[in-house]
Amino acid sequence: MTADPADDTRTRILRAALDLFAVHGYQRTSLRQIGERLRLTKAAILYHFPAKEHLLAALVEPLLADLEALLDAAREQPTEQARWTVLEGWVDTLLAHRRPLGMLFHDIALVGRGDTYHRLMGIAMRANDLIAGPAAGRRERVRAVQAVATCSDPIVFFTDVPDEVLRADMLDGARRLLAAPSATVSAVGPGERRRRPGRPRALGREQIETARRMHAAGTHSVDAIAATLGVSRATVYRHLDEQ
Prior knowledge:
- This protein is mainly α.
- The protein folds into three domains: 9-50, Arc Repressor Mutant, subunit A; 56-180; 201-243, Arc Repressor Mutant, subunit A.
- Helices cover 67% and strands 4% of the residues.
- The chain has helices at residues 9-24, 31-38, 42-48, 52-74, 79-96, 98-106, 115-132, 138-150, 154-157, 163-178, 205-217, 222-229, 233-241; strands spanning 185-189, 192-195.
- Strands 1-2 form a two-stranded antiparallel ribbon.
- The longest helix has 23 residues, at 52-74.
- It is flat, with a radius of gyration of 22 Å.
- It starts with 8 loop residues before the first helix and ends with a helix.
- Mean pLDDT is 81; it is low at 1-6 and 182-201.
C-alpha cells in the first residue's frame, strides 16, 4: 500500500512533537522522546529538523503565514471594513490553530530565541495599525491594541469553551470596546456624562446569533444555551422570540 504523502516522516515528527509539547512542555520534551514515539532514531529527526528550535518554528509557521495573508487582504480595504476583516479573521485564524497557540503561550519565552518573535511583533503591529485606522490618535491606537488582546488571550485561557461560543464572546467584546462613546453615554451638561436610559442588551449580536444557531440545531436546550452564554433562561427566550 502506498503511503499517504500527507503522512510523511516530517509530518509525523511534527504531529508527535506537538502532542508531546502539549503534555510535557517544550523544555521537558527531548528529541529522544519524539524518536521513541515514532520508532525513529535521533539522527532521523535531526535530518529533517537540525535543532529542536526548528520544530517549534515549523509548528508555528502555519499560524504566522495565515495571519500575514489575512493582513495582506485587509490592507486593500477601506478603513472600517479592514478593521472588522482583521478582527474577525484574527479570531478565526487563532481558533483554527488553537493547539499550537496554546503550546506557544506556555513556552512563550522560547519565541524570543529566533526570528519568530520579531515576526510575531511585526504581525501584531500591522494588525494594530489596520484596526486603529490611518489617522488614529493615541486613544484609538490604545484601543486597537486592546481589541487585538480581546480577540487573542481568551483562546488560551478558556480552553474548555467551544469555538463558536468563544468566537461570539470575543467579537462582542471587541465591538463594545471600539464602539463610539456616543453609543454608551450622552452629554447632560458641561463636564457631566450619563448613560443613556434603558436596559442594556444582555447579549451582543454575535452571542444572539450563536444562541439562535444552537437552538435551531436542536442539540442544546434553552437551559444549556443559557448556561453556555452565562445568562438567564428569560434572556435566551427574549432573543429567540425576536426572530
